[in-house]
Design goal:
alpha/beta; UDP-N-acetylmuramoyl-L-alanine:D-glutamate ligase; Rossmann fold; nine-stranded mixed beta sheet; 17 helices; 19 strands; 24% strand; globular
């Protein structure tokens, strides 16, 4: 029996090398309420904009969001979009090591999607790209970076978007180097000539791509499995994984019976980048030595998480754990949010129900009766209580080295187990100001050791008609004092050995 709980704990120790076509994904969100008087075209009233690393770079983002390491090799142009991508990699907290080759002959691939905020519908996409094979000089640089980094990786991903990074020369050099070192290569393919990927361990076409590459029908389970095994023969791979949208996935491993994995019943918001998530999880599981079937089931679970989010999304380790191990996770985990994109939906649903939303925050390193009094008091002044929880890095900056005593996941689980708490949201900043702007509570609650004018977010809440509530503290309880006492040396009575 495959132990997913144990394997998920090993994910942060893995390193994956990813080579592929890098893009800048630009999402422009707004609503359409009229037609332009200048032409028969809809007018989008823009409300917000997001810039994220896309294409093969989204594989790296997913690996980093799962707390593992990624060595990324790709191409950018000598332009503003390339600079933004370079800066975006710097923000991935040291989990991604980028090696970006600058090609002055082409622009950085950029995609701008105009999206209806309310309906999560793509209205238009505009692309800036030159889909031509990389020059020999760029090819040599890509190969040099990839081969040098390969000994440090447990698995290799070739993420091909047919923009010119993965030329036949680059692909062959990477696969041959990986085979010499015994590293599995996972290919997310493009085009119809898959012979260029010969010798990979696993190839991941969708159903349409499979039919085109093998020139066979892929209309039902049996036909898909047959075509997938045919593809394995064509590219001399060990396995093929066919992604089938709402019908799940089909895994074909040479010499074994095919496995059909059904999709999870989820509400699909946006499928952008879901394939990148699948490839990232497959690579991490194969890097730790898991078989193709456990890797496929984990990837299927991860995909079900990201399609429920907007934009080019990623999956976190807690989200993957909750999705893949529903029977072994605690019910309170449904209250824990690390990815703020989930927060808006929860809040919107509560507001539709007419619920009054309250907010309080803290580090909650060692939960004591003082905390319980504030939390129960806070819940008493609202219908739904959101608790902002400082991340580990945030606690360390505020409290110093040696803190927190417990990591964010442990602290969140303890809080979520309390009846008074409806939602726990982890924030990375030193203050909860950005989170308060997102929650817009009608009641902002703190302990009685604060004065009203000291409460962070007071102006935001009061400007919207909310109130500040101060709860009298239970005397004699302080986390800092408890930690200090626990570290004091134990006094042994005289004569006791």
């Amino acid at each position: 029996m495959f132990d997913f709980e144990k394997r998920l704990a090993e994910v942060p120790a893995q390193t994956v090398l990813c080579i592929g076509d890098l893009m800048l994904d630009n999402f422009v969100y707004g609503e359409v309420s009229r037609i332009s008087p200048e032409a028969p075209a809809p007018v989008i009233a823009v409300s917000r904009e997001e810039l994220v690393i896309g294409g093969a770079g989204n594989v790296a983002r997913n690996i980093a969001s799962l707390c593992a390491r990624c060595i990324f090799v790709g191409v950018v142009g000598n332009d503003e979009a390339g600079l933004k991508l370079t800066q975006a990699f710097d923000d991935l907290k040291g989990l991604v090591e980028p090696h970006l080759v600058i090609d002055r002959r082409r622009p950085t691939t950029r995609k701008v999607r105009f999206v209806s905020e309310h309906h999560s519908t793509h209205l238009l996409r505009a692309d800036w790209e030159v889909a031509q094979p990389a020059s020999p000089e760029v090819e040599s640089a890509l190969i040099s970076y990839a081969v040098a980094a390969m000994p440090r990786a447990g698995a290799v991903v070739l993420s091909d978007y047919a923009k010119g990074t993965l030329t036949p020369r680059v692909i062959r050099a990477v696969i041959e180097a990986a085979r010499r070192l015994g590293k599995p290569v996972i290919v997310d393919p493009k085009g119809t000539d898959y012979s260029i990927y010969r010798g990979c361990a696993l190839i991941t076409p969708n159903r349409k791509e499979l039919a085109e590459a093998t020139r066979q029908s892929a209309n039902d389970d049996a036909a898909i499995a047959d075509a997938a095994l045919r593809l394995c023969s064509l590219v001399e791979s060990e396995a093929a994984l066919v992604t089938r949208s709402e019908e799940g996935m089909t895994l074909a491993v040479v010499g074994q019976a095919p496995v059909h994995v059904p999709s999870y019943p989820v509400k699909i918001r946006d499928v952008s980048g879901a394939g990148d998530t699948v490839v990232a999880v497959l690579a991490l599981f194969l890097a730790m030595g898991a078989g193709f079937e456990p890797a496929t089931r984990a990837a299927n679970a991860a995909a079900s998480v990201v399609v429920g989010k907007r934009g080019t999304a990623t999956v976190s380790l807690p989200e993957l754990r909750r999705r893949i191990l529903p029977a072994s996770t605690l019910a309170p985990e449904e209250k824990i949010i690390f990815d703020w994109s989930e927060l808006d939906e929860r809040l919107a649903e509560w507001r539709r129900q007419g619920q009054r939303i309250g907010f309080t925050n803290g580090c909650f390193d060692l939960l004591h009766p003082g905390h319980l009094k504030v939390l129960t008091g806070a819940r008493g002044v609202c219908d739904r209580l959101v608790v902002g929880l400082n991340s580990d890095a945030s606690v360390r900056r505020l409290k110093g080295e040696g803190r927190p005593i417990q990591d964010a996941t442990a602290r969140a689980e303890v809080l979520a187990a309390l009846e008074a708490v409806d939602l726990v949201v982890v924030f990375e900043q030193d203050t909860p100001l950005d989170l308060i702007r997102r929650v817009r509570p009608v009641a902002l609650v703190k302990g009685g050791d604060y004065r009203r004018e000291q409460v962070i977010g007071r102006e935001i809440v009061e400007a919207e008609g909310g109130e500040i509530v101060l709860i009298e503290l239970a005397p004699g309880y302080s986390t800092t004092q408890l930690v200090g006492r626990s570290r004091e040396p134990v006094k042994v009575p005289a004569g006791v050995k």
